[in-house]
Automatic annotation (TrEMBL):
It is an enzyme of class 1 (oxidoreductase). It comes from the Bacteria. It catalyses: a hydroperoxide + 2 glutathione = an alcohol + glutathione disulfide + H2O. The keyword Oxidoreductase applies. InterPro entries: PRX5-like, Redoxin, Thioredoxin-like_sf, Thioredoxin_domain. Signal peptide: none annotated. It holds the Pfam family Redoxin. PROSITE patterns: THIOREDOXIN_2. Its EC number is 1.11.1.27. Keywords: Antioxidant, Oxidoreductase, Peroxidase, Redox-active center. Belongs to the peroxiredoxin family. Prx5 subfamily. This is Glutathione-dependent peroxiredoxin. Thiol-specific peroxidase that catalyzes the reduction of hydrogen peroxide and organic hydroperoxides to water and alcohols, respectively. Plays a role in cell protection against oxidative stress by detoxifying peroxides.
Length: 168
């Protein structure tokens, strides 16, 4: 499993964009994790799946609500990573009203989850191998703080915990 001090793995996530921007077209766009994290402080939180109860009711809303506090603490971006496709993550972004506050990044094949060792096998529940629930603070591509939940728990990966760590 990835640890504090480790560099983020080489992986490509997908981000669904509904509006054309400077460097992205409408539709799924690749996000090279290492390039996107270079020179930035990023709050990343991972979760088992879009539209799932805890993820939708608590995890994502906490980061959306604390966006300004994260910015004030020196965090450049907030990323939500889930083993879902970019279209699902785009629909979930609309549902959660993340706007430009949280980047909803799809790890459709679980490449990032596997590379970090942060996987959760939910095959018995019909969901396959997913991302574990976690949060991490990343500075210039290196993990500065890591909070991994026990299966079925939501106690240490919440926005408030990571915000305290970002503030130092």
């Amino acid at each position: 499993m990835i640890q504090v001090g480790d560099t983020l793995p080489s992986a490509t996530l997908q981000e669904y964009s509904e509006v054309e921007g400077e460097s992205c077209s409408i539709g799924p766009n690749p996000v090279d994790v290492r390039k996107a994290a270079a020179g930035k402080t990023i709050a990343i939180f991972g979760l088992p799946g879009a539209f799932t109860p805890t993820c939708s009711a608590k995890h994502v809303p906490g980061y959306v609500q604390n966006h300004e506090a994260f910015k004030a603490a020196g965090v450049d971006e907030i990323w939500c990573v889930s083993v879902n496709d970019a279209f699902v993550m785009g629909a979930w972004a609309r549902d959660q009203k993340t706007g430009t506050k949280v980047r909803m990044l799809a790890d459709g094949s679980g490449v990032f989850a596997n590379a970090t060792g942060l996987t959760l096998d939910l095959t018995a529940r019909g969901m396959g191998v997913r991302s574990n629930r976690y949060s991490m603070l990343v500075k210039d591509g290196k993990v500065a703080a890591l909070n991994v939940e026990e299966p079925g728990k939501f106690e240490v990966s919440d926005a408030e915990t990571l915000l305290k760590q970002a503030r130092g």
